[in-house]
Amino acid sequence: MSAATATATNRTSSGAGREALEAVLAQAKAEGRAALMGYLPVGYPTVPESLEAMRTLVEGGCDVVEVGFPYSDPVLDGPVIQDAASTAMANGVRLTDVFQAARAVVEAGGVAVVMSYWNPIRTYGVDRFAADLAAAGGAGVITPDLIPDEAGEWLAAAQAHDLAPIFLVAPSSTSARLAMTTAHCRGFVYVTSVMGVTGARTSVGSAARELVARTRAATDLPLCVGLGVSNGAQAAELAAVADGVIVGSALVKTLSGDAPWPDRLTALRGLVAELAAGVRRGHA
Predict the structure, then answer these.
(1) Residue in 22, 63, 77, 132 annotated catalytic
(2) Cα torsion angle, 59, 61, 67, 72, sign
(3) Which of 23, 33, 73, 203 has most Cβ atoms within 10 angstroms of its Cβ?
(4) What is the pLDDT of residues 190-241, one digit of tens each?
(5) How far out from the chain centre does Cα 246 lie?
(6) Which is catalytic among the residues 19, 31, 59, 66?
């Protein structure tokens, strides 16, 4: 049995839901490394191909897969993810495909966390969404445009269905906001390393280190840093200070273009391997 298969088997045995997310983060910490979280939008370029790509993330070494739901009016997504979302929507992706994707990730031995803007969840039905995601084995939801102050209905649904509500903190967050926001998070805190939208950058930004330090003063939860990571060196840089490294645009970019689909999956697997080595090198 390969190391990746053994790790996947361990994840499967840890079960689904919020506890699975907490377990995989604790496992990474016990191994002396940061966790690797990979984001892909469901439905890009098609729903079946997106599920195959998410399974590739798990097989390649991602501890957590963020299942993104394409949305027409994003506030966090940069050009690469916006283009992918447009393709997915043109190809007919639906919110229910999120549950199919979460189930595919869990069946592959990974942990699935959904990233969605609030309006689709509200339109679908807050408690209904939480129930269906939990039934699919999902562990939690990142809501970029929902602040804890206005999340009462979502917090109740997440609690009822054993899901982790995950909110964002940013370099602009005051100490009071850090304390309030992290107090409402479960699983981990999503730390945005730069001000702006998603997208690979030549530098991950010095603000990340300072923000992680400020956030650690407010909570004992794992801190996972995202926005800007595109290679193993940057993953290692963030892994030196964070409990998890989140990568999105760079992964999505490997799936774009006109190359045969198997070649794009090979490129995706190669980048995941580089990032997985980076999070281990950063904590060594």
Answers:
(1) 77
(2) negative
(3) 33
(4) 998 764 545 545 555 567 888 999 999 999 999 999 877 889 998 998 899 9
(5) 6
(6) 66
